[in-house]
Amino acid sequence: MGKNCFLYIEELFSSLLSQTRKPDEIVYVDNCSEDGSFGALEKWKYKFENLAVYESSLTPLSRLRNFANGKTKCDYIAILDADDYFLPEAIGLYEKTI
């Protein structure tokens, strides 16, 4: 999730691509960015067949997160903002603790 996060998208999705336990589903909601972020997401659709990208103008952030939660089909979710990233074993460690 993010707005005008073009500079961070590469690191975010690279960290998801490097996971030792791949995510079952990725939902990204762009909050009407004006810096090309939404277009930058297109290349990642080819690397993640389970990536769904949405655009929304919802505010505050809690409504945007609820929107994203409503789009997922998974029982467990991890929320990352566009300027966040995961270390390579993050998803695997989360799965072991559940």
- Order of H and E elements: HEHHEHH
Give the low-confidence spans: none
First-residue to last-residue Cα separation: 24 Å
Percentage of residues assigned to helices: 25-40%
Number of strands: 2
Largest sheet: 2 strands, parallel
Report mean pLDDT, rounded to a whole number. 91
Structure at a glance:
With 98 residues, the chain is of the alpha+beta class. It has five helices and two strands; from the N terminus they run αβααβαα. The chain is 40% helix and 10% strand.
What does this molecule look like?
- By secondary structure, the protein is an alpha+beta fold.
- Helix content is 40%, strand content 10%.
Comma- or semicolon-separated keywords:
98 residues; alpha+beta; two-stranded parallel ribbon; 5 helices; globular
List the helices and strands and how they pair.
Elements: H1 6-17, E1 26-30, H2 37-40, H3 42-45, E2 51-55, H4 61-71, H5 90-97
Parallel strand pairs: 1-2
